[in-house]
Input
Amino acid sequence: MASDAPSHPTHFFVLEKLREGEHDTEFSRTSSNTGPGLRCPQCGDFVGSRSWEPPYQGDLELYGKAFGDILDGPCGGLLVTERFAEDFKAEGLTGLNGFHPVEVKRVRRKGRGPKPGPPPRYLFVTLAYGHAALDMERSRILRKKPPTCTWCRYAGPDAIDGLALEEGTWNGEDVFRPRGMWGDIIVSERFKRFAERHAMSHMAMVPIEKYVWDPLGLLPPRPQPSGG
Output
């Protein structure tokens, strides 16, 4: 409920996987058990992929020098190291659920580098969804048609040039997927400080108002800073 939302202002960031880098790590599942996906309680459309069910098993591909702390996981979830999970819980952060142990069946070295040692213990987590919602008027989303559902607010974007959350919808979760764009992961300013303080690797955090997604090159070119 809006009355339960924190009253103090905060900044939000889109969590992105770092491409390349010394902690570049990829995960692919080898167990394909899936369950039902979430549906919007108002319009009935799916608001995410199907859920990943046990056994939680898969392979790692190591492109960098060391394993990352947070990886893209199957079915819209994430894989986090045990170190990440312990610190996340100890500091009282919220928004991640499950923390199911993952069995890594094989580690493959990609590219040049020494043979990898044993990987850290990874846990599979799912993300909070259902409270925070995008402000569809203030978010700069290029799309062919507006959303038709006032709850899930989803309409497939062609490009994004900045996002904004609707005031009063955030209930304090530090990691979540927003209504209106369940494919993106949003984190709080507190999460950003936590990740920087503990040197959590293989992630980047972009202020939501500066987040750009333009795979088709539909947005106008950004002005280049003048030299001098």
